[in-house]
Amino acid sequence: MRLTVESVSTVNREMGTRSVVKLRVEPFVRFTLNQGHTVNNRVWINFKELRARLKFEAVLRHYKVSINRKGNQHTGVCPLPNHEGSGTAPSFSANLERGIFQCFSCGAKGNVLEFAALMEGADVKDGDALRKVAVSLKERFFPNEPVSRKGPQAAAKSALPQAPAVITNPPLDFELKGLEANHPSLSDRGFTPETVSHFGLGFCSRGLLKGWLVIPLHDPEARLVGYAGAVVDDGGIAEENPRYRFPEKRERNGKVIEFRRDLLLYNAHRIEKPADAVIVTDDFPSVWWLHQHGFRNVVATMDDGCSGEQARLIVSLVAPGGRVWLLPQGGEAGGRFAP
Ligand SMILES: [Zn+2]
Q: Torsion angle of alpha carbons 78, 83, 89, 95, nearest 10°?
């Protein structure tokens, strides 16, 4: 494999400076690192939850809109600063229950958050601008709840009281036994028994993952939280039959258990912290392959993107002044792969 350093850049984060080194693998795959995002300083906010909790009527009042309510519906003159058209026709309507609005004259429509963003003159397509508006709404309407900087798991704890309890990535209370470690799907691809055993891989011939290559997944505290299944025969991969499958949402004792890989980094628990350098890739075999070639500090995002929480985890692994090597796989994925 030929690795070429494409560029080196420095990012300043709350926890110190890290260099982000972009690697490229021949053939050259272009991807961009969005340095504009200071993920680590970013405030976590659950848009969906906030939208559900915000009372549209209260938000309208906040923007000095006089409410003309019939049932769940408010209608009136469009209050949006960018409204064009008649200033007196009641072209604006909002469903206060569902938290959505529409102006028949200027064509603006959206949800309560987008409404507030438009009132603030923000671009609703700009994620960061929308986030700022969301944070200020949260602070205004729910002042007693500090905005979490710890990430979605912490934020989930303050979720709606009436919502069914959702537990994200809980440790498993079982372990798959009898996996076939010397399966040709691994040895034929050149993985040594040492690598296979290091990562606990094996072919599963029973249960839900029967016929799949099984990959144990751990949280940063090294607890087993699930298994990914990998297709053994590459030929059968299609949109409806993807290369990997991950645990599905399930219900147990009245609680919803969900698995979210965007909150995990594959192999992160095996990295000795703080590391001078960590290689970040996007799929499992790259981690195994690099491990086998002496690169032990390798993690994978398990997807073609990198979430804010994953970026935070990456930064937490690397010593200040250390380096993060990004090594995405080819294809379109590379373009979206950047913390
Ligand atoms: Zn309008």
A: -30
Q: Rounded to two decimals, what is the model's pTM?
A: 0.55
Q: How far is the CA of 88 from the centre of ligand 1 (A)?
A: 11
Nearby residues of 210 by Cβ (< 8 Å), 6 or more positions away:
204
What residues have their beta carbon closer than 5 A to ion ligand 1? 78, 80, 83, 103, 105-106
Q: What is the pLDDT of residues 146-205, one digit of tens each?
A: 655 544 544 444 444 456 688 999 999 889 999 999 999 899 888 999 999 999 999 999
**Under a CB-based contact definition with an 8 Å cutoff, are residues 137 and 50 in contact?**
yes
CA–CA separation, 295 and 290 (whole Å): 5
Residue 173 identity: D
How far does residue 105's CA lie from ligand 1's centre (Å)?
5
Q: Is the peptide bond before 79 cis (omega within 30 degrees of 0)?
A: no
Report how far ligand 1's centroid is from the alpha carbon of 48 (Å).
24
Whole-number Å distance, alpha carbon 137 to ligand 1 midpoint, is 22
**Domain boundaries, given as residue ranges, for the chain:** 1-40+177-339, 47-147
CATH architecture of 47-147: Alpha-Beta Complex (3.90)
The tens digit of pLDDT for each residue in 286-296 reads 899 989 988 89
